[in-house]
Amino acid sequence: MANIKLEGDAFRSGNDVLELTKNQRDGSISESEGQASYNKTVRLRDARTGKLADFTTHFSFVVNALNASSYGDGIAFFIAPFEYELPDNSFGGSLGLFNAASNSNTSLNKIVAVEFDTHNNSWDPNDNHVGINVNSIVSVATVTWKSSIRNGSTANAWISYNSTTQNLSVFLTYADNPVFGGNSSLSYKVDLTNVLPEFVRVGFSAATGQYTELHTIHSWSFNSSLEVENQVKKKNKVGLGVGLGVGFGVLSCGLGLLWFIYWRKRGDGDQNEGLGDDLFMDDEFEKGTGPRRFTYRELTHATNNFDEGGKLGEGGFGGVYKGFLSESSTEIAVKRVSKGSKQGRKEYISEVKIISRLRHRNLVQLIGWCHAQGEFLLVYECMPNGSLDTHLFGGKIMLTWPVRDKIALGLASALLYLHEEWEQCVVHRDIKSSNIMLDANFNAKLGDFGLARLVDHELGSQTTVLAGTMGYLAPECVTTGRASKESDVYSFGVVCLEIACGRKPVDPREEQSKVRLVEWVWNLYGKGQILEAVDKGLSMQFDEQQMERLMVVGLWCCHPDPIIRPSIKQVINVLNSEAPLPELPSKFPVPMYSLLPVNMCIFSDTSLGHTGSTKDPTQCSCSSCSTYL
After folding, report:
1. Largest distance between two CA atoms of the chain
2. 328 and 472 belong to one structural domain
3. Among 527, 556, 575, residue at a domain's last position
4. Phi, psi of 259, deg, nearest 5
5. CA triple 362-364-367, angle to 5 deg
């Protein structure tokens, strides 16, 4: 609670909740105003790189009218400059956010808020509405709030911001056991870079006027993609991890900043656990930052000795197990590479050396690694909603159109980072729906970098080993074995069509004309009937223009000629309606293409396979090539 700043009439009540305005025990509760905010700065954007954070906040609250027939005025979640304070005389319809002076000169304001308004003022559409406010008490977007104010029911709200789409969305529910599936009750497109500074304050505000009610916050969490990166390098200390979690009442013990600090000495009885001929990996991996080395004992304890009951799935080179790190109260997923698998060992090395250096909100975070007892173990953040394919094909949860749209844009954002924004180009080589994980808010996170390769930005395709998964492989990869940014874009296009159509890229059960997803959708496109391929599970509840954009972009990405395919930057521009749709041939093109211009190094590889198979990894000695094989 020490990390919460209380202003005005806000106070902490005896039952460990926050009261934002006066309650009936205080006597008169009219013309009351109060704020409760986190008293440390929250980074909204990186001024150096210009990158804006994605964030999600979830809170439960009660607005209690005490059975009165007239009540007011409401509660709001706000983001403002850190120096922002509760304005004087901001009671009533101003909700504790503005006063007469700031309302009359909105150009001076820098604040974004989501209001849960309970009183119909002259600028409001009605009483009981949810509104998104930008620099003004007058909402830029509203929706009627079907509230349960009189009986004081508990509401749950999720507010999310996607910096790629610039979409601020709100989801509100009174369900007893609420589940957030990425849906929204209200949304508005706003570039927060133009409104708010780099560092901000986040919190709640509420007010009463002539009419009154009680405003109570019961729980709160806030998560942002811009994490503070602390790089602590000491000989016998592995790392310092920092996590921000805010919560109180029924969801946690107290309100404030939770510091998860873990110290780990080298060894701890592990000296004889490792593989003698793999000790070189320790030195290589420790050069990176972020992920840390775990002991084998830690991971067997975290996974209950790799209990089959906690198995999350089975990959090509081993199983994935759910685990729990008690020292940091963190859920993890542990990938256990099959013993004796040379290809698994190769992928393990590739994954640690590549993904440990990458930082992006749409990439699965590697937490740590371990090679001991003849095994290779990778530790990831746990993705509570599993992989995309389980929802599209497994009937786990029917994904709504807004969620599917968000997933496609999130995956595109991850590829833009890999292909163009990081210091080297990363070719993933295995983009598919089963490698796209979904976090608690159904944000897409690309994982499984075991086949990924580093390539200098000016170079083209850089491997002659067939790698990937059939159905997602670009035709030139099957013919030549060469992987490139263009072949990644092809795989992305297949996933776009999967998201839109809800079916796998190849389905032998379908009639002949529908077996191959890309060709089937392309033929419908040529007939002007592309929307007939849309997943029937959506029951026509989708934006037709946006859906058509996604499907046409998917076909564009899947053009047999890699030279005609778009860059991932072009993809994002079209999906965001910032560029027109391409004109594609009415018939599926014959797969005859020109080889990409390439400064090519040939490696000696002895076997091909479904996910690739090569000799032990080495780096090419060619001065122009930085590819790892």
Report:
1. 84
2. no
3. 575
4. -100, 115
5. 140
Q: List the CATH number of the domain containing 12.
A: 2.60.120.200
State both tokens at 182: 């990425």
Selected residue with higher pLDDT from 231 and 509:
509
- For the segment 313-372, what is each residue's pLDDT rounded down to a tens digit? 776 567 889 999 887 778 899 988 766 555 667 677 767 777 777 888 899 888 888 888
**97 within some domain:** yes
What's the whole-number mean pLDDT along residues 568-589?
93
Which band of pLDDT confidence, cut at 50, 70 and 90, is reported for residue 594? Answer: very low
The pLDDT assigned to 160 comes to: 93
The predicted structure's pLDDT at residue 574 = 95
What is the b/e burial string over 220-236, where b = at least 16 CB atoms within 10 angstroms of the residue's CB? bbbbbbbbeeeeeeeee
Q: Answer yes or no: is pLDDT of 626 > 60.
A: no
Domain check: are 423 and 320 in the same one?
Answer: no
- Its domain, for residue 131, covers 4-224
Cα–Cα distance between 16 and 116 in angstroms, integer? 22
pTM: predicted TM-score of the whole model, two decimal places: 0.54
Same domain? For 365 and 451 the reply is: no
Which of 430, 439, 448, 535 is flagged as catalytic?
A: 430
pLDDT in tens, 184-193: 888 999 999 9
Domain count across the chain: 3
Helix (H, G, I), strand (E, B) or coil at 177: coil
Contact 217, 205 (CB under 8 A): no
Is 430 a residue of the active site? yes
| Rounded-to-integer distance, Cα 351 and Cα 91, Å | 55
Same domain assignment for residues 506 and 543: yes
Cα–Cα distance list, 250 to 204, 219, 221, 253, 441 (Å): 18, 7, 12, 8, 21
**Residues sharing a CB contact under 8 Å with residue 384, sequence separation 6 or more, in sequence order:** 331, 439, 440
Is residue 65 within 8 Å of residue 71, measured between CB atoms?
Answer: yes
Q: Given 209, 224, 239, which residue is the final one in a domain?
A: 224
Exposed, middle or buried by CB within 10 Å (0-12, 13-18, 19+), for 166? Answer: middle
510-538 confidence digits (pLDDT tens): 888 899 999 999 999 999 999 999 999 99
Residue 335 among known ligand-binding residues: yes
3-state SS of 474-542 is CHHHHHHCCCCHHHHHHHHHHHHHHHHHCCCCECCCCCHHHCEHHHHHHHHHHCCCHHHHCCHHHCCCC
Helix (H), strand (E) at residue 349: helix 342-355
DSSP state of 419: I
User: 213 with 285, same domain?
Assistant: no
